[in-house]
Design a protein that fits this description.
Layout lengths: L2 H22 L1 H10 L7 H9 L7 H8 L4 H7 L3 H4 L2 H20 L6 H16 L6 H7 L7 H26 L4 H10 L5 H4 L6 H13 L11 H19 L7 H20 L15
Length: about 290
């Protein structure tokens, strides 16, 4: 991995937990419940929060843009989520959820100079991102820019994580990996236990069929672990993902990038240390 791509991935690792508080924080769950969504499972809120920038999107569009979820699972929640609350109503509640969650997780740091300085830098990067052909990044980039520093930082972090995610989907497609194959191959390199990936709704039969397809391509052994070719393909997909995410970060000079790391690290520590996020996710951060 080149030095530049290493920096790009490091920024993703620092920003992703900040974005993810929306999906796990108790304050966000309370906002979901206030809208009328079920909270006995996280998915009604998740699909509403993440898909709302797309408007009242149907199941097909959400499945295509989110990529890793079983279309059958998506269909259980979309478009039904829009009968509970409109996308505009969800977006307003999302802002409240992020505000409350960040204030709780970051504590006194919210009122300090760090989030404001970090937001100014990350916002420059987000505004430099080319969102053509990147539906989730484009939808979030089109939303109004918040003024409060912690909200502005979350908005910019979200644009960039969806920009990266859209690029990752393109890299997977280029590698000839369909949505379930993408998860099977990711599990095969030890990114997370297969049970973690079960949250994406694929049936046991669909998972086994995808594994067999990858075995036939020489990417997996019969026991489901990645072959040398499978690991090489995974490295290539991640390299292409980093390359696709790199361009907007070039608007910052080397000193600005180093300063941003200094500003983000204590926020990262605060989020991770809060216990808000699960210890193991399908992203595999810290493992691959």
């Amino acid at each position: 991995m080149s030095e530049e791509l290493g920096r790009v991935r490091r920024m993703w690792h620092l920003l992703e937990p900040l974005h993810a508080v929306l999906y796990y924080a108790p304050e966000a769950v309370e906002e979901v419940a206030a809208l009328g969504y079920r909270t006995d499972e996280r998915w009604p809120g998740y699909f509403a929060w993440r898909a709302a920038p797309l408007g009242a999107a149907g199941a097909g569009r959400v499945a295509d843009t989110f990529h890793s979820f079983s279309p059958a699972m998506v269909g259980e929640y979309v478009p039904a989520v829009w009968s509970v609350a409109s996308p505009d109503t969800v977006l307003a509640a999302r802002t409240r959820a992020v505000d409350r969650s960040c204030r709780k997780v970051l504590g006194d740091a919210v009122a300090g100079p760090g989030p404001g300085e970090a937001a100014a830098l990350v916002r420059r990067v987000a505004e430099a991102a080319d969102t053509a052909g990147r539906p989730l990044a484009a939808a979030n980039a089109a939303l109004p820019r918040p003024d409060e520093p912690h909200l502005a930082l979350w908005w910019a972090a979200t644009v960039l994580r969806e920009h990266r995610g859209d690029g990752h989907v393109a890299a997977l497609v280029e590698a000839g990996l369909d949505p379930v194959e993408s998860l099977v191959s990711f599990a095969a390199v030890g990114a997370a236990r297969p049970e973690v990936f079960a949250s994406r709704g694929w049936s046991g039969a669909e998972w086994r069929d995808a594994r067999q397809r990858l075995v036939k391509r020489g990417l997996l052994d019969e026991d489901g672990t990645a072959t040398e070719a499978g690991r090489a393909l995974h490295v290539e997909v991640e390299r292409r993902t980093d390359e696709a995410a790199a361009a907007p970060w070039r608007v910052l000079g080397e000193g600005e990038r180093e300063r941003l790391v200094e500003l983000l690290e204590p926020l990262w520590v605060a989020v991770i240390g809060s216990g808000t996020l699960p210890s193991e996710t399908t992203l595999g951060i810290g493992k691959v």
